[in-house]
Amino acid sequence: MGKQEILNTYKRQEDKMLLAQVLDKINMMEKSQKIETTDFLDMYQISLVETFLKKIDFRYYILFGGFDDAERKILIVYPEKYTLEMIEKNYNKFLKIVRVELSDEEKGKYTHRNYLGGIVKLGLKREKVGDILVFDDGADIITVNDFSKILESELGSLTRFQNSKINSLELKEIRVRKLEVEEIKIIVPSLRLDNFVSDLARTSRSKAVEIIDQERVFVNGKSETKASKQIKKDDILTIRGKGRFVIKDFVGNTRSGRTVVLVEKYV
Question: In the chain, where does the domain assigned CATH 3.10.290.10 lie?
Fold first, then answer.
């Protein structure tokens, strides 16, 4: 089956449009023998693209978001003659950061929602922006290369950032925020995915199934729509809008036969 035939097997229009753009990038790369990149992809799109690339047997790509644990990533496709080392040395050509340095009066005041809300309020394209790393004194916002100056200029027009210092910087200057975790224990009736989503998202089983059906749940970075999927030790669950969780251990059972699970929640 050819690439276009495989693309035509996808039913959702938005999926087909994204994958058609990926195919265009591959075709452009093969014609020019130069590296091509996409805008940022979210976790669902990353899972979709990786599955598609496997189906068409395309191996010359990297997914990169600026640092190792980035959630949003760009797709980099490259000619066979390139090595991974050659690609990695050129990361600064693909991505930049926009650093917001808050005034003393505003330090500790803003969350991820405030920065993302500002970008949305300005009407800027979300796909041009990757992860937003928030600190007490400001944030490092990862962007595609040609968007950094636009974001730098536009953010300064918002009242909330009018006293802030905003600059475009090279990717190598990024400040990576150390991930903090909180240990929690949950009790599930079985190891089905919907039970974990229900407890971790603090919602009903029926609502948890809806969240899974809406493709908002990822297991080890892959979109998962099967509510009955069995969860194992060391699995990483991401529930969009609720957070990321690592299943650390199964530590016992209750008298009623439910399983006590030790979970690390990223905070």
Answer: 181-266
Phi-psi region of 4 (alpha: psi -120 to 50; beta: other; left: phi over 0): alpha
This prediction's pTM? 0.84
Percent of the chain with pLDDT over 70: 100
**Phi, psi dihedrals of residue 172, rounded to the nearest 5°:** -60, -15
CA angle 109, 112, 114 (to 5 degrees): 60
pLDDT of residue 110 exceeding 80, the answer is yes
Pick the CATH number of 3-89 from 2.30.110.20, 3.30.1370.160, 3.30.43.10, 1.20.1530.20: 3.30.1370.160
Cβ proximity of 183 and 217 under 8 Å = no
pLDDT band for 11, please (50, 70, 90 cuts): confident
Rounded to the nearest 10°, the torsion over CA 255, 181, 115, 89 is -130
Instruction: Please state, in angstroms and rounded to a whole number, the distance separating the CA atoms of residues 181 and 103.
Output: 28
